[in-house]
Every structure is written in structure tokens, then in C-alpha cells.
Amino acid sequence: MTELTESGGIMEKLTILSDAAKYDVACTSSGARRSGDGRSMGSAHACGICHAFAGDGRCISLLKILMTNECIYNCSYCVNRSSNDVPRATFTPDEVCTLTVEFYRRNYIEGLFLSSGIIQSPDFTMGLLYETLFLLRGKYRFNGYVHIKGIPGASPDVVEMVGYLADRMSVNLELPTAEGLRTVAPNKVRRNILSPMRQIQNGIKESRRTHGVSSMKSRVYIDERTYYDQMAEVRDSYERLLDCQGRVAAIRQKKAEQSAESAWRLSEFAPGEKSAGCMQQDLGQSRLKRQTGQGLSHPNRYFVPAGQSTQMIVGATQETDYQIISVTEALYERFEMKRVFYSAFVNVNQDESLPALAQGPPLLREHRLYQADFLLRFYGFRADELLSEQRPNFNELIDPKCDWAVRHLECFPVEINRADYYTLLRVPGIGTRSAGRIVQARKHAALDFSDIKRMGVVLKRALYFITCGGRMMYATRLEENYITRHLIYNERPNQMLLPDGSAGTYEQLSLFA
Fold it and tell me: How many other CB atoms sit within 10 Å of the CB of residue 99?
């Protein structure tokens, strides 16, 4: 305990490297500093503490740091690029282990989020991360949650060894398109990013086959399989609904796949594809070593049991929202990502090759992309339904679900007492829980607006799109501009929609106006 408090060097490194990690999005920094007072339970430390949410809804704290902010690359958007004159620091593996264990004993954290700049080479850096994790799991006996950032360009052997010790791994996509990546990060190449992504996906699948689904750690995969089956059912049900009711001939021709393919050429990295060359050969050699007892073996461990994620920077290059969610959809379907994170671009370097952003970081755009991401993952929407090449960006004044609904008024109003679960999910203001409650409650009695409000339906959004007993809540016109104006007013009472479709602001008239 005294080693941590008396070591000025390690705390100075912690201050530098936790601040350098704040642009790596996987959780939210807390910034709270509260000491134990002897009466309350727990405490908090400002440096590096952040919050993430577990699958069961628990809020957990993570120590989020970089191994080093030294970097041999000179990416235009990165605060840690080699040309920047910033304080530099590098943890030793033992220092990271000491911080993690001592913070855990103090009840500051429940896990570790560890990323890194590139020092010497990708292989050398990934080796440092592996050494740290090996000491943490072995010497320090830490069995908590660990999220490791994979280093693009590292050898498959090291990535595989890290995967058996980490709970989650992520390789940052960085930009929504490979062309954008070449523009602002010329040292990073498409293959070095996509190859470890595919390796992690294949490793997770092999781990499931090896260990089965009977253990606690594998139950997450049962839920995943059920989830993907349910999403397929959602989409099939909705398309049948459209055909049967004759409201829409079919969902537009799927062009999102073409957009994602032109952005990253993902089809070159098919699952289990042996043309990935040396990656597959190295994987086979490392598995042979494990089977014959050579090298390190983890027979009782799962490979990346919490799945993999990635991150894209939003606003650094000129990609549209349609391109971003098309790539996102392809990553979920082809790489089985657990999450795709979005990070609003902050021009920390004031680089001339990057946008100036006079209005500040595009935080509202990032928020809309997260909302659209939830529609892709939990509501059965497709990227081609939400946006198109003709309408490539979200209306930032209303959420994407409302934006979709006002552009598809031929599908509304929906009768609450008759619509199936999957149709209810399409209604703005109705979520997965409230849709389930409606389906259960209407078995016993007809529902009205006051009933569904108590079930959690947000009526200020839903009232334009539903009927109860064949009647709408108010005499509402099913007209796009009329409904859009009211939805904007509900979210931002001081704004209105002008006749040209742009947003205006209400102003107080003077006596002389």
C-alpha cells in the first residue's frame, strides 16, 4: 500500500497516461475525487477512473490508461503523434500491475482498460501488453475484467496469447473508410487492422466449439445466438408485414453493403479464409505448440470471452452518416462485433489537413450515430432503411427512429391493441421493454393511452404514430413537416422548422416590431 502512495514517479506517469487515454472510447471518464471518510462505503480517484456498463446493467469502474504515449507514427488526428511536443511517459509491466491491484484493493476499480502508443514496433508494443497481462493474471492473481487494445501490425502469435488472458480485445478501425485512413494516418494500413479483427473473431468461434456452452462464461454466447436469431425474425416479420398490408412494395434495394465494401473491401477477409496467408499459418503453428505442450498453454481459459469491439472517429474526414452506419452494419454482420464505438473528432493538433470545426466537436452527430447503432442492434433496422445515397445524413434535430418514421408515414398509424411485437418496435417512443409489456397486458384488456403511458411509452413521440381502439390521441395530420415540427419542438422548445426545412429559433418580439 505504501509503495503506491510514496511513489511520485508512478503517480506522475498515471496523470500523463490516463489523460492521454481519454480519446480512446469504450467507457466514460468520471473525473471524481472523493476520499474515504470512515462513514461512507467506497471512494473515487480522478486519474484514469471511468465507468462502463455491464450486460446486466451494473455500472463498473475501470482504470483506463495507456502503456505509453510514445509513438513512432505521426497520425494527423492523434495527440500522441511523434511530432507533438508533449510530456512522454511509459509504464513498466510491474507498474501497471501494481496500480491495478492497489486500486482494486482500495475499491476504486473493478477492472483495467489498457491501450498504448506504438513504441519501437507493433510487435514490441504488443509484447509489452502481453507481459503486463501475463504478470497480472499469474504473479498478481488478478481475476478481474481486462480490456486490451490490439495493436495493428502485431504478429498473430502475440495477439492470440493476449486473447487467452484478456476479457475483451479491440482493434480500432480509426476512420469510416480506408481512403480516409490513408489521408490522416498513412502509417496504418487496411490489412493490418482487418486481419487481427478476423483472427479474434475466428478465435472466439474456436473457443466456443472447444469449451461448449455449459459454463458461466459461455452463457453470453447463448444470449448472442438467441439475439441474432431474434433479429433475423424481426426483419423477416417486418418485410412480410409490408408485403401483406401492401403499404410498401419492399424495402429499398440494399446498397449499404456496396457502400461498406467500397469503404473497406471487407469481402477480402472472409471468415476462416486461408488466403489470409501467414496469419492462418502462424495460427496453426501456435495451436500445434499448445497441443504438443510447447510454449505457453491456457487450456482452461476462453479466448476473448467478452467479445471484440472497435472505434471510429466521426468528423475528421468527409464521410456521410450513411457510409458510417453501412460500415457499422457490415462489422456487426461479418466480424460479429460486440460494439462499435464512435468518437467525435477533436482537433487537438490544429492540423491544416483536418477540419477546423468552428462549432466544436460534432457531439450531437456522435449521439445520433449511437442512437442509430441501437436501432441496428436491437430493433431490427437496416442501414438502407435509415439513410440512403439521396439522403445521406441524419436530421440532427430529431432522433433517427423519429426521422425514419416521418419519412415512412405509409406504415402508420399502428393500432396498439393489434400490432405485433416487431411492428410496435418501429414506433417512436416504444422500446423493447414497453413493447413487451403492451403485448402481455392487452391479453387481458384493451389498452388506452393512459395505460401505455404507465408502461413506459413516451407519448410525446408516439402519439403521432399510434391509435388505441381505432382513435388517435389528438386530431393529428399524417404530414411529414407537421409531425417533424412538433417532434423538434418536443426536444428543443426554443427551435422551429422553417419552410425551407432548416431550423430556426423563436425570438421575443419587441414593442416596435
Answer: 26
